[in-house]
């Protein structure tokens, strides 16, 4: 059967034809082996830490298998959520309900139906998971409220001692403190830190995938796409899929990926990214309550306030997912005309803090940045890609 582009490049699903195995820089062992090794150790909880959109969930699917993985998200929990109720529901178990039973009156021998309620116990849920050889994967653990994370850690501490298997997935700078600092889990943790993807690993996705489709791609072109993919295999899959769509729609019926179509592919890739409201909110910044903001004249002749400059500076070359305050200052100063006044480092720092407060507490789509201890983390590579190539932000570089 002839493969289609959507069979080969799958940004939102398991990439059967373009799965690339990587090795840990620390142990030089494949991540698949390390994860399999970790979940085989009875009584241990696995902590999988790595940047967003880097294939952590795909790794779990590869090692555990779809039929044995039960995935929940930290966002599934609020302060009142019953942990085991969610765990049961995700496995297809009814946590509580009613059933009818037939009763008999001894004196008359008459029969009647009586409704009874039931609820599963934690022990029964754990036993079900063990019997079905299921593994619980808690993705985006950092999205759960802090107090809830502590409660979940306590529940897992007891469950893993009974043979329950679980993997907690989190971001590096939001590492699962509730898990790591739980005294009861000391000596019972299997730690796996996933490195960001290297350019040469991302290139393999393009080379392997286009070869499957009978399409040629030069090494330098694959490298350019890999650099723009911001260490994200998911974004690499997105871009390659859109390149295929462009080639299919071309009247030339070209079977070669040429450099001149890359910018078009980048812009097309952002078409379905829903970050317009996020960017708009960031550019407006917090409500000044009648106060006016300072504006700074840029090299393009336009004037921007500090929040607009922050957004523009994040999108500047080279694309970087982690920026120190000094990096932000240099990027902002580079945007401003030489003869124009510039914001102080303190003003930039305070604006980043206010921007963080503005984004906190909103929907998940707004959780794209984290300003922490003098470093601005870009949590979502797709967001940074959108900043660089979406709509009016499209670059000519």
Please tell me about this protein's structure:
The chain is of the alpha/beta class and 397 residues long. 41% of the residues lie in helices and 16% in strands. The chain is built from 16 helices and 14 strands. The protein has helices at 5-8, 31-40, 56-64, 83-90, 122-131, 146-160, 177-180, 199-212, 219-228, 233-249, 262-269, 276-284, 306-314, 325-335, 345-359, 381-389, and strands spanning 45-49, 69-73, 96-104, 111-119, 135-139, 165-170, 189-193, 216-217, 256-257, 295-297, 303-305, 322-324, 369-372, 375-378. The protein has a five-stranded parallel β-sheet with strand order 2-5-6-1-7, sandwiched between helices. A hairpin with a 5-residue loop joins strand 10 (295-297) and strand 11. The longest helix is centred in the middle third of the chain and has 17 residues, at 233-249. The protein is globular. It starts with a helix and ends in an 8-residue tail after the last helix. The model has no long low-confidence stretch (mean pLDDT 88).
Spell out the key features of this protein.
397 residues; alpha/beta; 5-stranded parallel sheet; 16 helices; 14 strands
User: Gyration radius, to the nearest Å?
Assistant: 26 Å
What percentage of the residues does DSSP assign to strands (E)? Answer: 15-25%
Any low-confidence stretches, pLDDT <50, length ≥5? none
Inertia-based shape: globular
Our count of helices gives 16
Oligomeric organization of the protein chains = single chain
């Amino acid at each position: 059967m002839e493969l289609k582009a959507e069979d080969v490049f799958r940004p939102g699903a398991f990439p059967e034809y373009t799965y690339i195995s990587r090795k840990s820089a620390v142990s030089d062992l494949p991540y698949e082996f390390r994860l399999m090794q970790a979940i085989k150790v009875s009584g241990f909880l696995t902590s999988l830490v790595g940047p967003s959109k880097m294939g952590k969930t795909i790794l779990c699917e590869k090692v555990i298998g779809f039929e044995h993985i039960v995935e929940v998200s930290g966002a599934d929990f609020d302060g009142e959520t019953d942990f085991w109720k969610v765990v049961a529901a995700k496995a297809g178990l009814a946590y509580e309900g009613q059933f009818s039973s037939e009763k008999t009156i001894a004196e008359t021998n008459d029969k009647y139906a009586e409704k009874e309620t039931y609820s599963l116990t934690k022990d029964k849920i754990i036993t079900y998971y063990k019997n079905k050889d299921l593994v619980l994967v808690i993705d985006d653990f950092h999205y759960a409220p802090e107090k809830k994370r502590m409660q979940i850690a306590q529940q897992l501490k007891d469950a893993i001692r009974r043979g329950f298997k679980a993997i907690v997935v989190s971001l590096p700078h939001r590492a699962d403190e509730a898990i790591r600092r739980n005294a009861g889990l000391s000596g019972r943790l299997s730690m796996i830190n996933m490195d960001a993807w290297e350019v040469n690993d991302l290139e393999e996705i393009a080379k392997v995938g286009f070869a499957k489709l009978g399409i040629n791609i030069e090494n330098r072109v694959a490298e350019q796409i890999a650099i723009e993919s911001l260490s994200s295999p998911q974004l690499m899959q997105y871009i390659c899929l859109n390149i295929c769509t462009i080639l299919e729609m071309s009247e030339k019926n070209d079977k070669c990926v040429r450099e001149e179509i890359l910018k078009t592919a980048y812009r097309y890739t952002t078409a379905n990214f829903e970050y317009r409201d996020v960017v708009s909110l960031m550019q407006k910044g917090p409500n000044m309550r009648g106060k006016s903001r300072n504006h700074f004249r840029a090299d393009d002749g336009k004037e921007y306030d500090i929040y607009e400059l922050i957004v523009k500076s994040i999108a500047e070359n080279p694309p970087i997912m982690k920026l120190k305050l000094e990096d932000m200052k240099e990027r902002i100063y580079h945007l401003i005309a030489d003869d124009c006044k510039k914001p102080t480092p303190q003003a930039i720092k305070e604006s980043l803090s206010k921007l963080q407060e503005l984004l906190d507490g909103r929907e998940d789509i707004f959780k794209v940045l984290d300003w922490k201890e003098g470093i601005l983390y870009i949590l979502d590579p797709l967001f940074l890609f959108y900043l660089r190539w979406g709509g009016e932000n499209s670059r000519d570089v």
